[in-house]
Amino acid sequence: MMPQREAKIPTGAPSAARRLRRPLAAFLRRFGLSVAFVLAGLLGGLGYALFAPTTYTATAFVLVVENGNGESGPAAVSFAQAYGRLAPLPETLANSSIPLPPHEAGDTRDHIQASTSPDTPLIRLAGSARTPRAAAAFANAAADALVRYGTLHRADTGVRVALMTLAQPPAEPSSPNLPLGVAAGTGSGVLLAGLSAAVMSGRRGGGRRAPARRAAVPAQTGAGRVEVRS
């Protein structure tokens, strides 16, 4: 019967692991909190981008022009600013012939946002909803309401509101945005990591300060002279 050979256990792997363990432990003691903040921010942004409710946004445009020549003068720009503030109000939306999608009472500002330019009498009406058709319906209802409201007050204002483009159901959601969500979460984590590193650095710097020297105490010598000892 042939004697069995004993299996040789490599000794290099444990020693290499021990050599790596010390610098890794030092790295984690110094930067572990910062790394945790960055990872938490990244995972938070990723989780929001993956599980946040989907929102679609559609856009319609209306233009304010003067009655006389149909041009866009200073008066049209001023009234465009005013009409932009009135667009999301329920009192203005009541003039629309396009029915609004089902929504909770009083939250039209969450579904309709109006924006204007200081240089041109153009009003951008953005509708937001959970479905593409509802988003377009909010934007078009706001545009139709603003045109009808402007027509009712045309004699008083001297301007009219004309529809430029109706909103179309968007093909893709406007939020959540995966790259943007991850970037925002990671940026927040980096900011917290930097603040924590600054705080910890300040604490370590304060602990390393040399102790204050003791106050000098005068001492009487044998010859009657006063000697200052520190």
Automatic annotation (TrEMBL):
Domain of life: Bacteria
Protein name (record): Wzz/FepE/Etk N-terminal domain-containing protein
Region (Disordered): 204-230
Record keywords, A-Z: Cell membrane, Membrane, Transmembrane, Transmembrane helix
Subcellular location as annotated: Cell membrane
Domain Polysaccharide chain length determinant N-terminal: 24-81
Keyword Signal found: no
Record-annotated membrane-spanning stretches: 27-51, 178-199
Topological category with respect to the lipid bilayer: Multi-pass membrane protein
